């Protein structure tokens, strides 16, 4: 299994990061509740949570490596948009979104931000991430410019700062399955961009 770790920022720049060796993360009985507690501990008292992305990437890799349950989630039948979501944990006041996502072959997302930090691990299939940057204009139009792309494979982990802009396409003939964790979303900062009308909206 490959162990590439990436981080993407709001300028559309992406960087390969140092990854922990999988055999250093092997642990008996490492379950979702332990993972969630360790993420909470890592973020406790931290003002800029995305500064802890290296720690969260490590914890995500630790969970994916040790938890068969996370990798064996079931999904509803193919939805109209080709994207199915399985929520792994949800609690009133809990500050994270934790889920697995299934992209059926050919599924494409909009160009968007998440309004929070995020870490995504590829469990199965191939996923192309395209990165974008907002370009200021004098007339007030919202333009985004492509800055690059990455094709991710099982074992890859990608992380995003809150202002990172990307879009996703599932490649190949089999579904792409990912494990995703996001911080508390600031809805006023979560945007979807329309490149044809040069506008953006909250979503």
Concise account of the structure shown:
The chain has three helices and 13 strands, in the order E-E-H-H-H-E-E-E-E-E-E-E-E-E-E-E.
Mean pLDDT: 92
Shape: globular
Largest sheet: 7 strands, mixed
Please compute the radius of gyration using only Cα atoms: 17 Å
The CATH architecture category equals Sandwich
Distance between the termini: 35 Å
The helix-and-strand class reads mainly beta
At the fold tier of CATH, the topology name is Jelly Rolls
Order of neighbouring strands in the sheet with most strands: 2-1-9-6-11-4-3
**What is the number of helical segments per DSSP (H or I, 4+ residues)?**
3
Helical coverage, percent range: 10-25%
Q: Write down the secondary-structure element order.
A: EEHHHEEEEEEEEEEE
Low-confidence stretches: none
* CATH class descriptor name: Mainly Beta
Quick one: CATH superfamily?
A: Jelly Rolls
Quick one: how many beta strands?
13
Beta-strand share of residues: 35-45%
- Number of structural units classed as domains: 1
Describe the protein.
The chain has 203 residues and is mainly beta. The chain has one domain: Jelly Rolls (Sandwich), CATH 2.60.120. It is 15% helix and 38% strand. The protein contains three helices and 13 strands, in the order E-E-H-H-H-E-E-E-E-E-E-E-E-E-E-E. The strands form three sheets. Strands 2-1-9-6-11-4-3 form a seven-stranded mixed beta sheet, with helices on one face. A three-stranded antiparallel beta sheet has the order 5-12-13, with no helix packed on it. A three-stranded antiparallel beta sheet has the order 8-7-10, with no helix packed on it. The protein starts with a strand and ends with a strand. The mean pLDDT is 92.
